[in-house]
Write a structure and sequence with these properties.
This protein is α/β, with parallel strands linked by helices and 322 residues long. The protein contains twelve helices and eleven strands. The chain has a single domain, classed as TIM Barrel. It binds iron/sulfur cluster (SF4).
Length: 322
């Protein structure tokens, strides 16, 4: 039986105990694809709160008019952001300690683009995060067009200090035509170089892919995976594209111009993908969904537990344990 290196197995082998990623969402952070810097309107499927509902319950996202970007010379929200970081960490870590007896944590800057802010702000926030109690490292979600070399240098310093540092890059597809249709605001150019630069510094790289993007065939989705494996990754997240209300994709879907991926087809792709994954790549996620009324389609994305049970069964049938 081939055993997939899940994030739980990886943490256990590396730290000798369970480690929980603590999702953090900070006021003022946004995305250059939303604020008009690279494109307007964001990715066609984007409704950021739906990707991190647990956070949205604690902190309303962007309840301030001030938003981060690279050009800001001063950040009036900084002290508030640090306070919020500590509060969110405290709440989540206490919860996981009380409920699951988990005692080690990684700070996970999850929502929006977490390197899209003035360098001094990032430095201060990362430095505050890394010294929180029982924190073994950080994972930072971002876009491939939002990483400055000095941020990579800073993260390398934490790696040298023995911290576990991950960057999570939203890749979604390696096809420029798909990136254009989905309004990603960037193309694939420069991605491979960025992968190399990131990993050369000892920073671990988790790539995100989406299966079921408009006009993509199963062969294209598998080709995206093969391409990023060739570029070199340490971790992977795959999720099905689902349609959430009040997005551009919702309009396209309601007009009859987008057909969501079926569960069977998605499962076939996950089976094929897991057969391709080398044993040292950490598979952090293969499912996703929106467990509320905002989910328009496909309906099988409503319950991640049912989704995972089915995917695990399908994988087990071909000798893969997830
Ligand atoms: S890059 Fe992420 S946050 Fe930005 S618009 Fe796309 S999905 Fe939304």
């Amino acid at each position: 039986m081939k055993k997939i290196l899940t994030i739980g197995r990886y943490f256990k082998s590396k730290f000798g105990q369970r480690v929980r990623k603590i999702p953090i969402s900070l006021e003022g952070f946004t995305c250059p694809n939303i604020d008009g810097s690279v494109a307007k309107g964001g990715c066609i499927y984007c409704k950021n709160e739906s990707f991190s509902p647990s956070i949205a319950k604690i902190t309303p996202l962007n309840s301030t008019a001030i938003t981060m970007n690279f050009k800001m010379t001063q950040n009036p929200l900084l002290e508030q952001q640090i306070k919020s970081l500590k509060e969110q960490f405290q709440w989540h870590s206490q919860f996981h300690k009380d409920k699951f007896e988990i005692r080690k944590y990684m700070v996970y800057f999850q929502s929006y683009t977490n390197t899209y802010a003035p360098f001094d702000t990032l430095k201060r926030l990362y430095e505050e995060a890394i010294i929180l109690p029982n924190v073994v490292g950080m994972s930072i979600g971002t876009r491939v067009d939002c990483i400055e070399d000095r941020v990579l240098d800073l993260l390398e310093k934490y790696v040298k200090d023995g911290k576990e540092i991950w960057l999570e890059y939203g890749i979604q597809s390696v096809y420029d035509k798909t990136l254009k249709i989905t309004n990603r605001g960037h193309l694939t150019e420069g991605m491979e170089e960025l992968f190399v630069k990131t990993r050369q510094r000892g920073v671990k790289l988790c790539a995100h892919l989406i299966y079921g993007l408009p006009n993509e065939s199963p062969q294209m989705m598998i080709h995206s995976l093969q391409t990023i494996l060739k570029w070199g990754i340490d971790g992977l997240k795959i999720h099905p594209l689902y349609v959430v209300a009040d997005t551009q994709l919702a309009k396209i879907y309601q007009a009859g111009n987008y057909t969501p991926i079926e569960l069977e087809e998605y499962a076939d792709l996950i089976v094929e993908s897991m057969q391709l994954i080398p044993p040292d790549v950490v598979v952090q996620r293969v499912s996703a969904g929106a467990h509320d009324e905002t989910l328009l389609a496909p309906k099988w994305c409503f319950d991640k537990n049912i989704q995972m049970r089915y995917l695990r069964d399908r994988l087990r049938a071909v000798g893969i344990e997830y």
